[in-house]
């Protein structure tokens, strides 16, 4: 990535400095050139090329079906647009669980073919060997604990995680282990706010929350959700900053009407 004028480039080191200063970190998903360019212009710190593309871009019920080739395609599209934010790419299901050699190969592919800045993986102790081996190649890794959507069939529900003491204790242990392994940041999804606060205060690396309360070091949302494009999804943690579903629908209907009535194109809209 390069700078223009006074535009700063966000790096893993700068994110650590932001945490030390108490400056909150803003993170959003993006999956294509056009939206990533706008997100960049808004001053976002981190763009996540999320495997949530399986849901919002491809219409799957879970994140599991998306492939590494598809993730690389989305990441390449985003990377052509951005100048300032750190770009993190989700490693899709099946590319790192249970096989650390495959994990390294997958992470290297993502970094080489997309030219992104980092990868993100879901899980704690059970994927630690993969995390360690990816980090050994010099690839920055962001962790993800709490509700881990790639494990939805294991959980059987998208309910809040780590309400019980045993699961909460394991989450804290996993968070510490991920930091000690060398992860540069951690996402906590859909866990009690006070537990997220404990993790954020325990770790020196930034902790980004989604449905994890206000006491963490930053927040992440899925772009389609916060823009109101996906009006079937209304979890408690989601704040909608627009209602683009209605705006899109209004514009599309007006276009159909204008074409049908012959109003479009008019004399000024033809050669």
Structure description:
There is one protein chain. With 271 residues, the protein is an alpha/beta fold. The chain folds into two domains: 12-240, Phosphoenolpyruvate-binding domains (TIM Barrel, Alpha-Beta Barrel); 244-271. 41% of the residues lie in helices and 13% in strands. The protein is built from eleven helices and eight strands. It has helices at 12-21, 33-41, 53-56, 68-79, 100-114, 128-136, 152-155, 165-181, 193-202, 223-226, 244-261; strands spanning 25-29, 46-49, 86-90, 118-120, 141-146, 185-189, 207-210, 218-221. Strands 1-2-3-4-5-6-7-8 form an eight-stranded parallel beta barrel, surrounded by seven helices. Strand 1 (25-29), helix 2 (33-41) and strand 2 (46-49) form a beta-alpha-beta unit. Helix 8 runs parallel beside helix 9 (193-202). It is globular, with a radius of gyration of 20 Å. It starts with 11 loop residues before the first helix and ends in a 10-residue tail after the last helix. Residues 1-8 have low confidence and may be disordered.
């Amino acid at each position: 990535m390069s700078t223009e004028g006074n535009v700063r480039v966000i790096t893993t080191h700068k994110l650590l400095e932001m945490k030390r200063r108490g400056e909150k970190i803003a993170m959003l998903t993006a999956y294509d050139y056009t939206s990533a360019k706008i997100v960049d212009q808004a001053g976002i710190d981190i763009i996540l090329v999320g495997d949530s593309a399986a849901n919002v871009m491809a219409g799957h019920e879970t994140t599991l079906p998306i492939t590494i080739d598809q993730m690389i395609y989305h990441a390449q599209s985003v990377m052509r647009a951005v100048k300032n934010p750190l770009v993190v790419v989700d490693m899709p299901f099946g590319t790192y669980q249970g096989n650390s050699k495959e994990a390294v190969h997958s992470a290297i592919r993502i970094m080489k073919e997309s030219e992104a800045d980092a990868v993100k993986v879901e899980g704690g102790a059970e994927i630690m060997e993969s995390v360690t081996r990816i980090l050994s190649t010099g690839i920055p890794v962001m962790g993800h604990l709490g509700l881990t959507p790639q494990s939805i069939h294991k959980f059987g529900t998208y309910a809040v995680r780590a309400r019980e003491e045993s699961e909460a204790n394991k989450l804290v242990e996993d968070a510490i282990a991920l930091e000690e392994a060398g992860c540069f940041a951690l996402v906590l999804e859909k866990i009690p706010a006070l537990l997220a606060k404990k993790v954020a205060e325990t770790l020196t690396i930034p902790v980004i929350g989604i449905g994890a309360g206000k006491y963490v070091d930053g927040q992440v949302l899925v772009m389609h959700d916060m823009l109101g494009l996906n009006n079937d999804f209304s979890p408690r943690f989601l704040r909608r900053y627009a209602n683009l579903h209605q705006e899109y629908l209004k514009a599309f209907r007006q276009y159909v009407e204008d074409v049908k009535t012959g109003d479009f194109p008019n004399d000024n809209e033809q050669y």
